[in-house]
Design a protein that fits this description.
237 residues; Nucleotidyltransferase, domain 5; two-stranded antiparallel sheet
Length: 237
């Protein structure tokens, strides 16, 4: 008899796969990875497709709803890292569709809103700081345009030079503010990942050992995604 199975997937290299409904307790896996040799014998990590198929293929004959976290570019993330995670995102979607699972692509913002404990006061304060910096950058851009407009009618070269110096300083300030926004974003991610591990532990304390390390945030998030998808299907979201 076919079972109702819910699967949550965090696609990152430190991500995870959580299976709900196959046992009394969730079944949680770290994202399967393997080493491959690249140019000049450099070894890099990549997704272990065979292992992923092995894990998910067990549920091919069940009624499966699979939630996969949507992937996109993130501030401060390198192009190589983004490309590799994008490849994994495509692989995981392809495997899920091939196994005829019902696939739901869910944005990080959407599923995180389902868990009130993830948005703590310190995260809210950091988001407000980011917002203030963005507003300030918009104001600086207006200041720059005003100086440029004034400079059009200035004939004194010393004053023109002074105006250009002011513009350069303001542009540097914009750049500094953008760097600070990215820095705050990384802090938010750090705190949010810790909060995800705490939330997963509260929900299933019997799995606490799986969520105790900093790098276990991905499997914690896969569990939260799985329960979000289950609640979505059950009409609780």
């Amino acid at each position: 008899m076919a079972r109702n199975i819910f699967i949550g997937i965090d696609c990152g290299f430190q991500g995870g796969i959580t299976i709900l409904g196959a046992d009394k307790s969730p079944i949680v896996y770290h994202m399967p990875l393997m080493d491959i040799k690249k140019y000049r014998c450099k070894t890099v990590k990549t997704y272990d497709i065979e292992k992923i198929v092995e894990i998910l293929g067990v549920y091919q004959n069940d009624n499966v709803v699979c939630g996969i976290e949507e992937q996109g570019g993130r501030p401060g993330e390198g192009s190589v890292s983004s490309r590799r995670i994008g490849e994994g995102y495509g692989i995981l979607k392809g495997v899920a569709y091939t196994l005829l699972f019902k696939v739901i692509i869910v944005s990080p913002k959407k599923w995180k809103e389902h868990y009130s404990n993830l948005e703590t006061s310190d995260i809210t304060e950091m988001r407000e700081s980011q917002s203030e910096l963005r507003i300030r950058n918009k104001q600086i851009l207006v200041e720059i345009e005003d100086i440029k407009e004034i400079s059009k009618n200035v004939k004194d070269q010393a004053q023109k030079s002074k105006n250009n110096t002011m513009i350069r300083k303001l542009k540097r300030k914009i750049k500094d503010n953008k760097s600070e926004i990215d820095k705050i974003y990384r802090k938010i991610r750090y705190v949010a990942k810790d909060n995800a591990r705490k939330e997963a532990t509260i929900m299933h304390p019997e799995l606490a050992d799986m969520f105790k390390r900093k790098k276990d945030d991905g499997i914690a998030e896969s569990l939260l995604i799985g329960f979000y998808i289950k609640d979505l299907v059950d009409g609780l979201v």
